[in-house]
Amino acid sequence: MRRGLAVVTALVICTAAHAGEARADLCSDSVDDPVPVTLRDGAIDALRSACMRSDLDVRLGGYALIDTPDFYGTLGGELAVGIRFVEHAGFEWGATIRLLDVTFAQTAVLSATDTTYGPISVHAAASRAARLGGRELQWGGLIRGELPFTRAELDTSTAGGQLAGLASLEASRTLVLHGRVALLGWYASSAAGRDTRGAVAVTADASVRMLAWLSLTGGAEVQAGWYGGLDHVAARAGAHWRVFGPWRVDAGLAVPVVGDERTDVAFTLGLRRDR
Amino acid sequence: MSWKRASVAAAVTAAVGMIQLGCPGESCLRGACEEVRACDGLEYTCEPAGTLYVGPVAGAPAELRLARGEGADDDILVSNGVVTAVIDAIAAPHGLAPTGGTLLDLGAVGAEDDLVNVYQIAGILPDDALAYETLELVDRAPDYVAVIARGRLDGRDEVDVLTRYELRPCDPGVRVRTELFNGSPEAHAWVVADVSQWGTRKAVPFASRPGQGYVQPELDLLELQSLYDSYDVGAAWAPSPTGQGYAVAACNQGALDGINDLQISALGTSLELVRPGESVVLERLWTATGAGEGPADAVETALGVRQQLLGDAAPLIVAGRVVVDDAGTAVGLGGDVRRASVVVLAGDGDGATPLGHVIPAADGTFRVAVPPNTEALRYEVSSFGRVVASGAVPAEGNVGDVMIEAPGRLTVTVSDGDMKNPRVFSQVVVLPADDATDAAVRGTFHGRFDACAPWLGPPHGGAPACNRVLVPPEGLETFELPAGRYDVYATAGPEFTLAQRLDVEVAPGEEQGLILFVQPLDVVPDGWLTADLHVHGRASFDSAIPDEDRVQTFVSAGVDVIAATDHDFVVDYAATIAALGLGDRVRVMGGIETTQLIPWMDVPDEDFPKVIGHFNFWPLVPVPGAFRGGAPWDELVEPGALYDLMDPLIGGEGIRLMNHPWDESQSGRDLGYLRAIGYDPRVPIPDADDGSRNGMLQRAPAGGRKNLEWNALEVGNGAGVQELMKARVLWWSLISQGYPVAGVANSDSHGLTDQHLGWARTYVATGGDLAGFDEDAFNAAVRAGKTGGGSGVFVSVEVGPAAGPRRGLGLEPYAPAAGDVVAIEVRAAPWIDVSEVRVVTSAGVRVLASGGELSQPADPLGTDGIVRYQATIPVEDLLDAPGTGDDWFSIEAGLPLPAYADLDDDGVPDTGDNNGDGVIDARDVEDPDDDAGPMNDPEPPGLDEVDAPRFWMTRVVPYAFPYAFTSPILVDRDGGGWTAPGVGGGA
User: What is the mean pLDDT of residues B163-177?
Assistant: First the structure.
């Protein structure tokens, strides 16, 4: 799978020069945004561009962890709905609710499946335009947090969030680069204990406009701290295309390549409507 | 309304709807151990409230202790004067538990404990066992006392666990609370459950589920989840006069989920997904009460927990009296599970649900509490293992008098003819004399364990057990049995004649007297001692035979020397031998059978970790009050490292015996080391560990001894030939590759009925007698290979000049001179058939004599005809290939061995002619999921097959098969030192 990702990425880069129409400005078309494949529960590590968006998002996500030597595996899938508002130029806020969360875990011959819902996450983001080397640059920040006690399981209090610096650069008329430096935090508290985790994540993604309605995205993420050391160096790949009018679809997957991360692959499929 | 406002409103509404005051609770793991206790809503009162104690067993007041338990001096005892529990010390783990902190003993004060141990798990893998690191003793008398064990899942450092054992005044049981916190970053499918190791022959779980009771679906670890069920309470009882009833009820949930099996029960929370940051808590009350009364009292206590905490309706009390007709008067019958045993069921037919079980008191009265049930209730009264009465339970629960047939009584004396100086210990075996009696008296312990005809008592306990009775020499032995017509046999072992009395008619309520005579036979010549070097007693987790009965079997089987080899515990029966005055009749060496239970060993090409199987070590001196009687913890080490651990204890003269090297695994635990590593007897063992399976033998895991440095090998295990047929090819392979060790044969007896002490036995040429027994000299003779083994047959071998003198058995290489001969003598009691003598060399097996070439006694019940074969054979004629190559030989004797084949092509026989078509092939494989097996001992002859081989032998030792073998003699043909001939040994 990793080899396939490399091939796709190379293909994207090689064909970038032959892509379709250029955009009006850096943030004019949300098809250039990266695909938000997440590895953390509650999507607290969700990726985005520095461009402010106003849209409705219905998203399927999932992951798989298969550890045969340890006789352990887990599969997860979720359905979430999110909405974003641009209040005025450069400020955005929004909320996401996970309507369905299905998790299956198996250790040796014992397995269990849990179907639940929640949490509700809220976020605020701000950015401003600039120029870098004659190119359009959008830079800003994001704060996102899971509201406690918004999961179905109320015996455990969970919260998490992301504080990130964002940047998106129009590298060429068909290529947009996205960067992020994020702090992730999470805690859970239940009858018998309390646990907290944190990590630093650095991501770099590229969106190549292949056609007027289609962008291919690829990137990498380095995260450390969640497991105590290097969590992962993960490769991402995806596609983002405008289906009709304000409707667009994005799909992507992420594969941790090195590090302590035990998840083998995560994927996402989203349907968005710009407003 | 705009998108924005609608979205905001929806989000707020959803948030408000989902936000509740669901603050996480407190727990002992979070430090609130005084506030959060176990089963807090339970209240018990008594007058006066007893003394509370928590502290080391060694310091516990005598009046609070249990009469029998495994607790060592440093383990922790908690008691409230009503019930006593022992929690093992952290560094003293037992059974499957990775650490101490588990419930080791539990009982009413002064009772005998039958628990192996109860430990906690979160899942099925070793990593999911709760591993405790600290024990905190909490003394809050007069309010309560507690032991708090803290730790983590074994192998998952981020998962914190805690178990609190608490006793309050008047509590009838221990309040237990276990907490688990998932501090790992992944979700897991976990439970919090108590695993009760029952041991298969001690306490038997009683499950109130349709069609169950004491018989539950067989545990299949691969199908574990499909076996999960819900139980109102968990219960168990050891069927013996002292056996307590055990029960457990949950305090914080409606039922206990899990499985019940003869080996283990696992009961706790339901299997659920535990996400990061989530907790699982289980609270329950464990109780033990009664002695010989069944689980009824304990179950009633457990039902009381449900009544107090879960709002269950009060249980229905079913009461009555079991009576027999004594000259027209109803007289109560009870006081023992043999005489009467009452089960109350809901529903009818095979799907009926057993709800309660009780043993009536001596006056026949019984009382058993059952949970309220909408189905019609009925009772069944069993006597001597069969249901003899049943009926409907009235709505108010009083069934009145239940009339059953009175048992008869037999009084038996067994003598060698000297009535003034009785010396004979014997076993009396009772068999039905006809099919009608067999059908009428065949019984079981409520469907559990093998059937016996007649069923004189639970098969794994003290005598009478199954159809066997121990008869001491000095007096009469009277026992009860159901009416019928019987054949009665008396045996004092294979060195005595066999006595019989046929067609003994036993009528209800009447007594018969018998005198049977057995005579000693000169089967084993002077200079030899007989030995059983693999024997279990009640100290083993899987044996329930009382010490007194165990010691009596030593003598009644006529065995001179015993190695007491209990699982992971050192005993030597010294006190019991002294009490019975048998010090001149038997010598017992303290020993141990190391028994790994925690899978850990990686074997090439195997997906699952293994254990190393069982090994015997002796001599050992028991250390009273010490963990394992003074033996070390033996888990997670390879054999070589185990030898290094044990060598200082057994000394330089000690024995390291590899037991049943190819025995099948039980519950996923390997019993035979060579099978565990997949040793191939056809492939040479490399000179060093090369990463192969055979190469594992050359590993020295702790830098000391290598894995293959056992100094004796158990070739024969039991009276039949199953294990012999597998072990001998492995033994031959090792001999042929230059790793010769003594071969021994043992019973591996765990009680009176499955595997009989002394069948098989080892013969050791010590040159002396029992009176002059020297432990070091005896063990030196074993190590030197001056041994043979057999099931009822003795073989001696000497080599040397035709005119003598010759040498006997031994591993010292023998360089034959021209004209040297091998002198062979085969001896057996007249009632044991011998019709074949064989020689085994590196080239294979060859028959030396058969049929008419052996002497057959005229009267199997007489004293003549002990010597069956004598021959003097030139050495060169004995060896297959003439020439100068070194070789070895072993002599076997007995009946022609059954045919078995190696269908899975691993070099070891595995399958018999199970369909009887004369060909062993895939059609003989009975389990479609297997590619081989089974390999069964031949069926014993029927009642009317008096002239059939094995008839007399199998009257007293079912499935016995006459066999014998000698340790090898290494033949150094060229006199230049013995060179191993290489693999290809035996077929």
Answer: 97
Q: What is the pLDDT of residues B863-908, one digit of tens each?
A: 999 999 999 999 988 886 666 689 999 999 999 999 999 999 999 9
The answer on B356 and B384 residing in a single domain is: yes
Among the listed residues B662, B654, B670, B674, the one whose alpha carbon sits nearest the alpha carbon of residue B533:
B654
pLDDT digits (tens, 9 = 90+) for B706-733: 999 999 999 999 999 999 999 999 999 9
**Nearest chain B alpha carbon to A149:** B19
Q: CA–CA separation, B938 vs B733, rounded Å?
A: 26
* Residues of chain B by 3-state class (helix, strand, coil), percent to 5: 15, 35, 50
Residues B815 and B832 in one domain: yes
Same domain, B412 and B448: yes
pLDDT of residue A60: 97
Range of the domain at B398: 316-404
Q: How far is residue B628 CA from its own chain's centroid?
A: 17
Sorted by where each starts, the structural domains of chain A and their CATH numbers stand as 2-274 (2.40.160.40)
Determine the Cα–Cα distance for residues A140 and A129; give it in Å rounded to an integer.
Answer: 9
- Separation of alpha carbons B755 and B532, rounded Å: 12
Could you say which of B123, B162, B186 has the minimum Cβ distance to residue A110? B123
Minimum-distance CB partner of B273 among A103, A122, A152: A103
Residue B559 dihedral angles phi and psi, to the nearest 5° = -95, 135
Both structure tokens of B301: 């206590």
How many domains are there within chain B?
A: 4
- A112 CB within 8 Å of a chain B CB: yes
Torsion on CA atoms B701, B702, B705, B710, rounded to nearest 10: -60
User: CA distances (Å), B518 to each of B186, B470, B489, B791, in order?
Assistant: 70, 15, 10, 19
Asked whether B303 and B371 are in contact (CB, 8 A), the reply is: yes
Q: pLDDT (tens digit, 9 = 90+) per residue, A99-126?
A: 999 999 999 999 999 999 999 999 999 9
In this predicted structure, what is the pLDDT of residue B375? 84
Residue A8: pLDDT band with limits 50, 70, 90: low
Instruction: With beta carbons less than 8 A apart as the criterion, state whether B661 and B675 touch.
Output: yes
Same domain, B349 and B425: no
Rounded to 5 degrees, what angle do the CA atoms B157, B162, B165 make?
155
Residue B290 lies in a domain: yes
* Residue B203, domain member (yes or no): yes
The CA-based angle B200-B757-B518, given to 5 degrees, is 135
Six token digits for residue A176: 């947009």
Nearest-Cα distance to chain B for A142, in Å, is 19
Same domain, B848 and B943: yes
Q: How far is B209 from chain A (nearest CA, A)?
A: 22
Of A147, A193, A226, the CB nearest to B29: A193
Which parts of B651-742 fold into alpha helices (H)?
673-676, 722-736
Q: Do B24 and A108 touch (CB under 8 A)?
A: no
> Looking at residue B22, what is its pLDDT?
45
CATH at B505: 2.60.40.1120
Is B83 within 8 Å of B105 (Cβ atoms)? no
Backbone angles phi, psi at A10, to 5 degrees: -65, -40
Contact at CB, B185 and A149, closer than 8 angstroms: no
Domain boundary among B310, B343, B365: B310
Q: Flag whether residue A223 sits within 8 Å of chain B, measured between CB atoms.
A: no
Answer yes or no: is B836 within a domain. yes
**Is B20 inside any structural domain?**
no
Are both B190 and B278 inside the same structural domain?
Answer: yes
Integer Cα distance of B881 and B904 in angstroms:
30
- ipTM rounded to 2 decimals: 0.90
Percent of chain B at pLDDT > 90 equals 88
Final residue before a domain boundary, out of B257, B291, B310: B310
CATH code, domain with B394: 2.60.40.10
